[in-house]
Amino acid sequence: PGLLVSVPRVKTIINQYGYDIWRCWEMSWLNIDNKPEVATLVISYNANSPAIVESKSLKLYLGSFNFNRFSSAAKMLKTIQCDISYTVGANVKATITEHTYRTPTPGICIDSQIQNEIDDEPNPKKLSTSNNNITETIHSNLFRSCCPVTAQPDWASILISYTGNQINHAKLLSYLLSYRNHAAFHESCISNIHADIYQYCQPLTLTVTGLFTRRGGLDINPCRSTDPNEDWQNIYLNRQ
């Protein structure tokens, strides 16, 4: 557990609900007979936790299980829950699964919208709406940001569901693409996108999910919503 690094959450200007979901594809440990066990580990915790766990440190921590023996998978999971809960300052749920099914990205893809110029940094002031009240789900597969620790690129599909005046798809895509050189953790990017859309487009309801591709055996999937009763789904896309 000494390998785990805690990072304080970035505060937003609005109240947000949601979860951070991690899928860890390379989880392995030894059973009571010293035989390796392999499974997909799913970790989740509340978006209002005081801190997040830094991804590189989590990879190193999970790697330390490879040659440790546990009498049962339940005891292994209990260890993970306790250690990461202490790191993020909130209750953590950890489960293992043998079967995870890919799904197509929900909603309308906005990636065909024409872009003449992309800002170097996110500029939410370009977001706009029409007077046409609508409920819709839209997504983009072109999102990229950069890790603030390693400067490596982080790729994602961004899924946005809302009710309110229709958001201009072209300007929304331009805003999302302006994150291409922005250095921030996955969780911070999604929190900021949710807060910016809520502030500048003023929807009645809004849920933003970042479905990031895996790096180092982990994919991270933050979800932020205005609805405390939102049905959080562990969506697994084809590209992940």
Count of individual beta strands? 10
Tell me, rounded to a whole number, the average pLDDT: 93
The number of helical segments is: 4
User: Biggest β-sheet: count, sense, barrel?
Assistant: 8 strands, mixed
Backbone shape: elongated
Low-confidence stretches: none
Rg? 19 Å
Bin the strand percentage: 35-45%
Can you give the helix content as a percent range?
10-25%
* Separation of the first and last Cα atoms: 27 Å
List keywords for this structure.
single chain; 240 residues; alpha+beta
Short description:
The protein is an alpha+beta fold and 240 residues long. The chain contains four helices and ten strands. The protein has an eight-stranded mixed beta sheet with strand order 5-3-2-10-9-8-7-6, covered by helices on one side. Strands 1-4 form a two-stranded antiparallel ribbon.
Task: Please describe what this structure looks like.
By secondary structure, the protein is an alpha+beta fold. It has helices at 55-63, 73-88, 169-177, 186-201; strands at residues 6-8, 17-30, 36-46, 51-53, 92-97, 108-109, 129-146, 153-167, 205-212, 218-225. An eight-stranded mixed beta sheet has the order 5-3-2-10-9-8-7-6, with helices on one face. The two termini are 27 Å apart. The mean pLDDT is 93.
